[in-house]
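User: I'm preparing a small set of examples for a lab meeting where we compare how different chains pack in three dimensions. I only have the primary sequence for this one, and I'd like the structure in token form so I can line it up with the others. Please keep the answer compact; I'll paste it straight into my notes.
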Amino acid sequence: MSDTGSIDVDRWRDELESKRAEKDEFFADHPQSPIPPEERDEFDGLDYFDPDPAYRVSATATVHDDPEVVLMETTAGREMRYRRVATLEFELDREDDDLEDGTFELAAYQQESPNEEPLFVPFRDKTTGQQTYDGGRYMELEPERDLTTGDEIVVDFNLAYSPFCAYSETFDCPLPPEENWLGVAIPAGERDEYSSH
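Assistant: Understood. Below is the structure token output for the 197-residue chain.
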């Protein structure tokens, strides 16, 4: 279910636009930008879906005490080891669609290294390969404390982003495993093509 009751939507939208502007600046000017140097002069900002608070949802976490190892294939044909640390269950209200409202699940992962890193949530949806990058998109969630089963966590698809391999083949990125393929369109977050004029 959408988690808009507890937020100031105007402030949320302003913060989102500000994050997007910062990212555009990084992509345009930073030495570590994934945009190839010869294309940076033409770079005119990433392409995004309009901010939509309906895609900021509250998910219920099921934490896995003994996380299974998941091998994710990468764009370069390698495998990366992750641990499935939690399953996030959420609802999407789909008033503008003939699809039924539904409950969905996404697995959240961490790499096997012991550092306190964000939860990694790679996913595909019905926009993948059409309006969004064909290798799927990513979200990173940073809970304020260690999650326990039954905790609620905000999942904001407006923050979904394309991996660096969407911009340059020099990067090797994990591909979302099949358990994180959503059977609905999520028109929120980054779109496929960054606009260059």
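A couple of notes for your slides: The radius of gyration is 17 Å. Helices lie at 9-29.

User: Perfect, thanks.
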